[in-house]
Amino acid sequence: MASSSTTSITIFILPIFLLTCLSPIVLSEKCSPHEKKALLQIKQELGNPSMLSSWNASTDCCSWNGIQVECSNTKPYHVSQLELYGLDLPAPVNIPPSIFNLLDLEQLFLFKMPNLTGPIPSQITNLKKLSILYIFSTNVSGPIPDSLAQIKTLWSVNLSGNNLSGKLPPSLPSLPTISVIFFKGNRISGPIPDSYGSFVSKNLSSLTLSHNMLSGKIPASLRGLDVSFLDLSWNKLEGDGSVLFGAEKSTAEITLAGNYLSFDIGKVEFGRNISRLNLKHNRIYGKLPEGLTKLPHLTRLNVSYNQLCGPIPQGGRLQGYFPIDASSFANNKCLCGPPLSPCK
């Protein structure tokens, strides 16, 4: 009887003992099994780079060192941010498809990886909660998916410094909360879509399309574009760039350098918030307007290498305010007056 009682007590106590011993480990594991599996597949799809050596099945993925994996702070826990950068990829690989199994991902950063190649997969639309998408300084190629507009939570998109080609996706302006768009330094071609003059989001603050192969005339619809920072420089854009200005606009920095824009600058009205204005290397003509002297925040100005003529307006920050100097007005048709030579 004693032996039987001891056996019964042991059978009863043993599960409690095991649960007590193991529960701290179980309870401390934030990473869900399916997300850990996805992350380990990502590691394998990248060729098992040494910088991901801390990624292993025996530890909580929310505590992995090195490359950043962040999890939410509240239950149910999920991987909310994945940041992969500077990885020593052993061979060229495409963007790992398993990334798109992290359905609760809110921020995705892939950058400084020359061996990251191939297109942006269509499965990116699986990430319905994504607010920040940064893929830059890689060799990712192909078009920017028009389907990005299906991710209604997108707030900031940076696809700069890749080998992306094709046309600008016309549906991006439909994103309801988009604030920042950086597509600098790719091979994007064709015209700027008319839709870029009517963003649904009222929070768009920055649009950078510089150092691409954009061509065609500036759409008249861009008269409705009002952003703090606008950079269309070093493309092949033509036509009337004056639609990008307006006394009522809040733009602080505008860079149109290195295009074929042609318009009479004397008819342009500038918003009072402008601090940096770079129009060099275009075909802009006319006389510089007196309104330039009334810009209280102007710190940089460059209108060199155009077809401007007449006296430079005197006053404001146009003379003696470094770095606005003679080089800012050089190589025009017949500009004169300080800081250039006197008018005849």
UniProtKB/TrEMBL annotation:
Report membrane topology. Answer: Peripheral membrane protein
Q: Which Pfam families does the annotation name?
A: LRR_1, LRRNT_2
Primary location: membrane
Q: Which UniProt keywords apply?
A: Cell wall, Disulfide bond, Leucine-rich repeat, Membrane, Plant defense, Repeat, Secreted, Signal
Biological process annotations from GO: defense response
- Signal peptide, first to last residue: 1-28
Q: Which InterPro entries match?
A: DNA_repair-toleration, Leu-rich_rpt, LRR_dom_sf, LRR_N_plant-typ
Family statement drawn from the similarity comment of this UniProt entry = Belongs to the polygalacturonase-inhibiting protein family.
The protein's name: Leucine-rich repeat-containing N-terminal plant-type domain-containing protein
Native source species: Arachis hypogaea
